[in-house]
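Let's practice the habit of predicting before peeking. Look at the sequence and jot down your guess about where helices and strands might fall. Then scroll down.
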Amino acid sequence: MTPPDPVPTPVDLLIRNAWIVTMDAERRIYRDGAIAIAGDRIVAVGPSAAVERQVAPRETIDARDRFVVTPGLVNCHIHITGEPITRGSVPDDADWRTNVFEWLVPTYMAQTPADEQLSATLAALEMLRTGTTCFVEAGTILNLDPVMEALAGTGIRGRLGQWVQDRAFAPEDDQAALTARAVAAMEAQAARYPLRGDPLLATWPCLVGHNTATDDLWREATALAAETGAGITAHMSADPADPEFYLETAGCRAITHLARIGALGPHLSLTHAIHLDDEEVALLAASGTNVTHCPMTAMKGAYGATAMGKFPEMAALGVNLQLGTDGNNNGNAADLMRAMFVTAGLFKDSRRDGTLFSAYRVLEMGTINGARGAQMANSIGSLEPGKKADFVLHDRDRPEWRPLLNVVNQLIYSADGRGVHSVWVEGRRVVDSYRSTLIDEEKLYAEVEVAGPAVLARAGMTVPSAWPVL
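Done guessing? Here is the structure:
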């Protein structure tokens, strides 16, 4: 007796007849694939004919000759307040110290809570519309509550935290009090916005890094991360000033010092990590520490990534390399696809070695590697049954997608975020036909046009131009 056909599983959405780049363990790509979604989860991925037999969809999108489906991208380092609404104002020829201390920090200090809300909303909109569904904030938010409120209305996934540093630089500073205040702030935000329950938005210890955190703060942040299951993010060694500081004060370089105090590990993501020696690279690899490369910032800020950076060596030793777009005033859009393109070429050229950072390796950096560093590899970063339904439809009805021969090469070298047609986060369609479904874009743009110049005026800055603006 022939067994009856299995009863199809009810699902909310079926996308069929699409190119699907799964980023699963086998890195399978389906030329005529389907993905089925129920609630916030992926139910099935595979050949269209096979998936269609398994499910009974409430809605079907036929992607024939139109869409490429990828996991949502993960941006592991972005400043979402301050810089998005003052983008382009920093002079193009500012060195690292001038950029940070004479431009960025003053504009951060001049923003209001309302400015931070606008800036965070603008950053989230730009990320979502260019295919990023999850981000890790860089650690420079001043007013966390209004930022969380604003982000909750955008539909994006993120891990973020309030600006945290504690080192006493002035003789009159009370070091113990500064550390206690910083630790209290980390603990308070962890209690207010916990990871418990797998929320879209939650907090981490977001240390400014460089030389701004004492050993006590590093240890407390590490203990809090272990207790809560959080990650930690911090800037480190973008400039020779960081290793020089630690050599002078601790007798060893920055990464070596972090290893000695027990701060390294899979919970930690260090951003930039350019000025390292071989010992530091080995320590990062042995500890499982994640490294976030921000190639566009490195180029615009003349950080020396191509001349000094040991990213090929890190990759060879198995360091989990992920990508970030950093801040808009470093010349960056929040389009992670642009960062992927730059990463694919930088070290090929600087080392004259075309085997470095293939398109396949770079797409891993923007998806599954980023999910690992964000402590979410079990739920996002690839398209697999049981994972969260965070995914992107790239529009093939554009010149850069015709003809489609090698989908990974074209994602990295031909396409960018402007071709993102639709985006889902946790099963919710947050971008549809190039527009946010949750954000009033025209209203946001009008408010940002007013807020940006006002922040610069309060900071006492004028926007320089080498050419006359009439």
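How did you do? The domain at 73-373 is CATH 3.20.20.140 (TIM Barrel).
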